[in-house]
Amino acid sequence: MMVALLAGCATTTSERSGVPSAIERAATSSLMPHDSGDAAAGTDSGEIPSVGAPVVAPRTPVYTADLDYLAEQRDQEPVRLTVPELGIDMDVTDVGLLRDGTLEIPETATVAGWYRAMAAPGADDGIALLAAHVDSPTGLGPFAALKDVSEGAEVDVGLEDGATARYRVAAVEQTSKDTVDFERILDGSLGHHLVLVTCGGEFNWNTRHYDDNVIVWAERIND
Q1: CA nearest to 77, candidates 121, 117, 110, 112
Q2: CATH number, domain at 133?
Q3: What does the DSSP 8-state code read for residue 173?
Q4: What is the extent of the structural domain holding 130?
Q5: Per-residue pLDDT tens digits for 92-141
Q6: How many domains does the chain have?
Q7: What are the pLDDT digits (tens) for 145-169?
Q8: 207 and 103 both lie in a single domain
């Protein structure tokens, strides 16, 4: 399963100083005499040549470093996922990316991984992504049943503070891994959704992977 990440635009930087070029040009031009001829004439006459005033950095707002306040501003991480219709009740842990750029997934199929670089379940916007293996050497995992979930089925995500973010299934897709549109999953402009992802379709003995992805989209239920 591959998650493609887009690099942010970078400001051009001077190789000499590491300072963004636009800022460096503004600073150096204000500190140097505007005309070397005028400066030389001023020195001969005994006058001190004028020099532009240095660039003054704007006032930077100071934010609190109170740990309790910062903890309150952080989205609560998911710890439990339940889909009553399917009998799914499983732990959730946070995951990142592997070195090859693929999404890290918990080794056991009985635990779902929440991709921590995206939104958390219960957030106001963005996509919350949870993924799990469809099976393991010991048998099928809970997400093997996702392909059969009904539209409108309830999906509950327990958060670390004891609250529950409630969702309703809006769509179920089974798509070839060669054509799955992960850019759509990463598109935060779609509004807040919970997306559950696992493998599906036929098992390819040559690649040792399943051919498809099963993707469930769920919309937040306002309490």
Answers
A1: 121
A2: 2.40.260.10
A3: E
A4: 75-220
A5: 999 999 998 889 999 999 999 999 999 999 999 999 999 999 999 889 99
A6: 2
A7: 999 999 999 999 999 999 999 999 9
A8: yes
